[in-house]
Amino acid sequence: MKRSPVRWIAVGVLVVIAGIVAVLATRPQATATEVITPLVGKKAPPIDATTVTGAPFRLSAYRGRFVVLNFFATWCPPCRTEEPHLVSFAYQHRSPAGPALVGVVFADTASNARAFFASTGATWPAVADPSGRIALAYGVRGPPETFVIAPDGLVVAHIDGPVTARYLDAVLAREGG
Amino acid sequence: MAGTDEVAVAGEAGGAGESPGSGEPRRPSDDDIGSGARAGWRRHLPAVALVVLLLGSVTVALATSQSKSPSFERQALAIEHDIRCPSCEALSVATSSAPTAVTLRRVILARLRSGQSAREIEDYVVSRYGEGILLRPPSTGLAGLVWWLPALAALAALAALAVFFWRRRGVDVARPSDDDRELVRRARKERLGSAP
Questions:
Q1: Would you write out chain B's pLDDT as a tens digit for each of its 196 residues?
Q2: Which residues in chain A touch residue B106, judged by CB atoms under 8 angstroms apart?
Q3: A150 close contact with B: CB closer than 8 A
Q4: Do the chains contact at A39 and B128, CB–CB below 8 Å?
Q5: How many CA atoms lie less than 13 Å away from B129 in the CB half-sphere?
Q6: Could you give the CA distance from residue A109 to residue B188 in angstroms, rounded to a whole number?
Q7: Structural contact between residues A103 and A91, judged by C-beta atoms closer than 8 angstroms
Q8: Quick one: which of B64, B96, B104, B123 could link to B85 by a disulfide (CB 3.0–4.6 Å)?
Q9: Domains defined along chain A, listed by start
């Protein structure tokens, strides 16, 4: 019996759709990638703001220490993915002389950030950036993005995507941290 | 119409250009010539008015565009159209509603108000995001070829055309020989001779 070509076309389309779904479902999650942007190798733009809890924050107060500056938002799934890794990183480097972890809220409210930090156990300062000017000064396109600032105030790494504690440790080790 | 009236008046006085009683055309008088010139001038009046109106409009438009410098908002909009939204792929800062685009719009306006030029603002944005943030390719470096190549190609095409025509000028075009002329002459003679 001769089969209708429409049936074959339908089967073909179904196979293609199934293939696309399989590729999308099994592809690895976005990972951190170090990117070369104009800020790398230059002085970190100053930050003089307040944290989401209302405390004053000055980046210059951290001069002499490595600073891991993490731009995040509570609405951003990769930011939620990386949060446990950041908590782990902060715990491993909890000594006062170690690298300091600082969050910057990207296009999100202070109350959302406070609730997010409370739920994840994050203890580092989260700087509010309601106008987005800090993000612009650092050339942030979309969270999560992380900058590693050397003790002399130079930006030594710009990482795009969700970081892990191991990834950050590798960058710090490379920079002599 | 005014022109028609003038002609009618001239006709009554002189019998439509004929000498009375003679039937021969008469020489037009100075009055006739004067009224004809007036009629011609009036005929062109709408065209003259149109030209004056157009020239006036252009003058007014140029005067107003040069006397007023564009507002900060207009300048900002022009810059925003040249900058890519940092968190989107194919939208300009002017057309995107992404948070980074909104921030950039505010920053561009604030910097314009503080006296910075469009170039300085673009340089600032490039210093943060790199050259790729500009939607308009730069006129220098490798990307500058985008601007220069079409102009160079047009120049090359013009030069090639000039060379082509210059060479053609020197080519001796085949001229009819005496035999050819004789052949044509005979053919014409035969044809004319056979005509009724």
A1: 334 344 333 443 444 444 444 455 555 565 555 555 566 667 778 788 888 888 888 887 776 655 556 788 999 999 999 999 998 878 999 999 998 899 999 999 999 999 999 999 999 999 999 988 998 876 777 777 777 888 899 999 999 999 888 887 766 667 788 999 999 999 998 888 765 5
A2: 131-132
A3: no
A4: yes
A5: 25
A6: 100
A7: no
A8: B96
A9: 33-174 (3.40.30.10)
